[in-house]
Write a structure and sequence with these properties.
heterodimer, A: alpha+beta, Ubiquitin-like (UB roll), DNA polymerase, domain 1, 2 domains, 5 helices, 5 strands, B: alpha+beta, Uridine Diphospho-n-acetylenolpyruvylglucosamine Reductase, domain 2, Uridine Diphospho-n-acetylenolpyruvylglucosamine Reductase, domain 3, Enolase-like, domain 1, 3 domains, five-stranded antiparallel sheet, four-stranded antiparallel sheet, about 25% strand
Chain lengths: ~160, ~280
């Protein structure tokens, strides 16, 4: 039995502080300790991407990080990206373009897509497929996910232009 | 999947890392991005009572390109390799290989140092580093030493690194000529069924130097000196391709697993090497 560690982290802008065993996986910290259930557990083996969160500005799979590694980290989950009353353009686009069926992969998809569009605001279909390769969907066949991201990219570009 | 309990350390300098390694011996492991080690710990195939996280240790990051070669810090991630334009100009094979490793999220965490130090025959960087004749810098209680990548790998997960040593950097001579990293995998994120790293130099229509290494076709990466030698002095025609492929087949020793039987792996190795040589030659 290892000693518990004193952990602090910022999740969706909120300071969190607790004691945890270092071996606790970050996805369990988020879901079961902090009740942030947007990030999902799919494969739990670093393949499917359902647990994708943003840590220090980068997309990361929360099933493959110990809570101890995330001590001091700044974390964003789907809950920090948009909510029912203020949907992110990607959330709106996924809804309008049928970018989901069962929805299980969607929080990870959208969390990853926010970073993809920051890294590359106007991606080609090929760039979207490559940039989203760490997120698996067993329903859509991906075509509508690609369409949704393209639509969100256009929407965000138009909004940016309008703002300038 | 819950790994066995461990004590966690996040030292802020290398002296702290080494004193922990000295204290705990082979009960301790250092961790870079953790994307090889954590999955093994989750499966309880790796037992690490004392886990030393390198994320706060200085001096392990950064890519430096000089006239003498390229130095890549052990904590440089695959994403950083891909994003570095100067590196992609100086040694484009690194970017070509990194793009074929895992997926974006995993590349954000997975490091060059972890990839080469872990000794997993499935990892892509060890073979690539043998092709490029890289040198690995190790630091331990007795100081610093350099080990050529071609001498580093002893067996699966067994390397020349001592239990109390840490791999701090990879140094690569500036590569010359054409290049290719060719990888056959079943899906995104998979290890190679077979992969080949090729650097080749052309003078007129004649190959004057060639370096070839293969991945996941033995319990270590395979630097096939004979395959490279079979190309030198030729115009890399069909006969030379066949000779190089035959020489490579003599050096690899694949075993059957869920990627296929031995005969299939040998077949794929031949196909992949031919493609890699042809592409490298076309770029030379």
């Amino acid at each position: 039995m290892s000693r518990k560690m004193h952990i602090t982290m910022t999740v969706n802008g909120k300071e969190e502080e607790f004691l945890a065993e270092p071996r606790e996986l970050l996805i369990y910290t988020l879901r079961e300790r902090l009740n942030i259930t947007g990030p999902h557990i799919g494969c739990e083996t670093s393949h499917c991407g359902a647990c994708t969160v943003t840590i220090g500005g980068k997309s990361v799979k929360a099933c493959t990080m110990f809570v101890a590694q995330a001590d001091g980290a700044d974390i964003t989950t789907i809950e920090g990206i948009g909510g029912p009353d203020d949907l992110h353009p990607l959330q709106t686009a996924f809804k309008e373009h049928h970018g989901l069926q069962c929805g299980y992969c969607t929080p990870g998809m959208i969390t990853r897509a926010t970073k993809l569009l920051e890294e590359n605001p106007n991606p080609t279909e090929e760039e979207i497929r490559f940039g989203m390769a760490g997120n698996l969907c067993r329903c859509t066949g991906y075509q509508n996910i690609v369409k949704s991201i393209q639509a969100a990219a256009a929407e965000m570009a138009a909004a940016k232009e309008a703002a300038e | 999947m819950i790994p066995a309990a461990f004590a966690y350390y996040r030292p802020t300098d290398m002296a702290g890392v080494i004193s922990l390694l000295q204290e705990h011996g082979d009960d301790a492991r250092v961790m870079a991005g953790g994307h090889s080690l954590i999955p093994m710990m989750k499966l309880r195939m790796a037992d690490v009572p004392h886990l030393i996280d390198l994320q706060a240790v200085g001096g392990l990051s950064g890519i430096a390109i000089g006239s003498g070669g390229i130095r890549i810090g052990a904590m440089v991630t695959q994403s950083e390799i891909i994003a570095d334009d100067a590196l992609s100009t100086a040694a484009p094979i690194l970017r070509e290989a990194a793009l074929q490793i895992a997926d974006p999220q995993v590349r954000n965490m997975g490091t060059v140092g972890g990839n080469v130090a872990n000794g997993d025959p499935g990892n892509d960087m060890p073979g690539l580093m043998q092709c490029l004749d890289a040198t690995f810098s190790l630091i331990g209680p007795d100081g610093v030493r350099d080990v050529p990548a071609r001498d580093f790998y002893e067996a699966a997960y067994m390397t020349a690194r001592g239990d109390e040593e840490v791999l701090t950097a990879v140094t690569i001579p500036l590569p010359a000529g054409g290049y290719a990293y060719e990888k056959q995998k079943r899906k995104i994120g998979d290890y190679a069924t077979a992969a080949a790293a090729v650097q080749i130099v052309k003078d007129g229509d004649i190959c004057t130097a060639a370096s070839i290494a293969m991945t996941n076709l033995s319990d270590t990466p395979i630097f096939s000196e004979a395959a490279g030698a079979a190309l030198i002095g030729t115009s890399v025609d069909d006969a030379a391709l066949q000779a190089a492929t035959d020489a490579m087949q003599g050096d690899i020793d694949p075993s059957e697993d869920n990627r296929g039987p031995v005969a299939f792996k040998k077949h794929v190795a031949g196909v992949i090497l031919r493609r890699a040589i042809a592409r490298a030659w076309s770029r030379a």
